Each structure stands twice: as C-alpha cells, then as structure tokens.
Amino acid sequence: MADVSASGAPFAKARSPLLTLDEVPHKRHVPPPVFSTCNPLVPEPGTPAFASRQDQFAVDTAAELKRAEEARRQQKKASLNDRRQHHRAAEYKSEHEEDRKFKHERERVLNLQATDAGRSNRSGDHFDIVTLAYQPSQGGRQLKSLDETVKYQAALRTMDIFAKKHSVQHDIITGHPLVANYIIPSKPDPL
Prior knowledge:
about 50% helix; 5 helices; about 190 residues; mainly alpha
C-alpha cells in the first residue's frame, strides 16, 4: 500500500515514454481553437466558426428554398425570353431580306418585259452557243480578244513548264531531239 501512495493516485498509470500532442515539435504552428469564456462549446465572435443567434437556426427553410427555386426559375425564363427575342429578330431580318430580294427580282422581270431585250430569245453574252461564233458587236470583239489572250497566256505557261522540266534539248536515253507537244498561237492584237 505504501507503494500506491508514493506513486500518486491509486489507479494512475505509469507515464508513457511517448510525447503528448502538446510536447510534439510541429513544423508549423497550429493555433489552438478559441472558445468563449462562458461556454467552451460556443466559438468566440469574430472567429470563422462563430454564428450569431439569428443565423444559428433557420426559421423558415421551406420558404428560403422556395425563394431560391423561384429565382432560378425566373432566371431561366429570362434566358429563354432573350433567346426567343434574338430568334425572332433574326427571323424578321431574314424575312425582310427575302422580301427585298423578291421585290428586286419582280422589278427586274417587269423591266425586261417592258423592253425588247426581255422579248428576244438571246442571252446577255456576246457569244452564240449554238453556232459557236462571237456576236458582230463591240462586246463580241472584246470577248474574242479576251479569249485569245487567255489562250496565248496558257501556251506561254506550257512553254515555260516544258523548258523547266527539260534541262537539255535531247532525250538523254535515246539521244533523239525533244519535240514539244504544243502549238504556240500568235500574240493577239490589243483591242
């Protein structure tokens, strides 16, 4: 019995060689929680865990949820209305553009019907696609000159490509002279 009174409390355990949490050297300092002096379970005002008495209890949770749902519904409705208005504006613009094109086409047809150009069975081109001949007019002469210029430029490109492809004037395997497979047209007269 003497041993028990010397060591302290009768049921006290012997001290563990492990350190307590307060004795462990931490790499970073963790401040202890701040409790109210009145009640140790209530955090002090100003701390992140503190909630005022009014905020601790939601009096009408259903009404708050209903308001949040109504706000979400109103936001969705406003978004849908914006999309509908944008779609209507685009549709109106498209219809207006179609109407303008229709009126323009109708005016063009009426003008062609009023003049001789609309009554004759001729195209606006200065080239007859049945006889493959140019019209005997200023437009026909210009079209013929333009076509001849295009053909002449194509022949010049052909000559240039042939010259770049063949660095010598003879076939290197047979030794025969190279013959160009193109005909050089004469340069057209400027109009």
